[in-house]
Amino acid sequence: MLLLLFAAWLILNGRITLEICIFGVGISAALFYFMCRYLDYSVRREILLFRLIPLGIRYFWALVREIVRANVCVLRIITSPEIMPEPALVYFTAVFRTGMARVILANSITLTPGTITVSVEGDRYCVHCLDRELAEGIEHSVFVELLREMEEKEAQWG
Q1: pTM (2 decimals)?
Q2: Largest CA distance in the chain
Q3: Is the dihedral of CA 60, 65, 69, 75 positive or negative?
Q4: Domains of the chain, each with CATH number or no CATH
Q5: For the residues of 75-104, what is the DSSP string, one character each?
Q6: Which SS3 state, helix, strand or coil, does residue 85 take?
Q7: Model confidence over 43-77: pLDDT tens digits?
Q8: Would you state the pLDDT for residue 158?
Q9: Are 77 and 32 in contact (CB under 8 A)?
Q10: Angle of helix 99-111 versus helix 142-157 axis, rounded to 10
Q11: Could you report the per-residue pLDDT of 2-50, keeping only the tens digit for each?
């Protein structure tokens, strides 16, 4: 982060001289100290974020895959006159240590067509589904497994 602050200093100055570099190192170091002391910044937490990038990419592609699958399923329900959707409210429990994991799961469910997260109370989720078929296995979905894996990795480093 210190190097990033120094690079931003150099870019914003537009030229490189000895005085600008010395002054930039001083200001960057002071700003880095301020961030660590008062803004709860941690180099360890930043390293953790870099370690979570591969899992984040896997989560993103799993989300895209589930969105495409759900789109196909909803399209089939809409275009087939013989299929009668059976809307349902589904309750399930997914235990997470952090509120961020709960929010990410709720938003991922809502982003997936045909499902909307109605409420989250602690570890209990209420999801409205366009059809019961869309809710099958939601408590053991790839989203839940990847979020738990992310939390485990965070617990190792946190």
Answers
A1: 0.73
A2: 77
A3: positive
A4: 2-38 (no CATH), 53-157 (3.30.70)
A5: HHHHH-TT-----EEEEEE---SSHHHHHH
A6: coil
A7: 777 777 788 889 999 999 999 999 999 999 999 99
A8: 58
A9: no
A10: 160
A11: 788 888 888 988 888 899 889 989 999 998 888 888 887 877 777 777 8
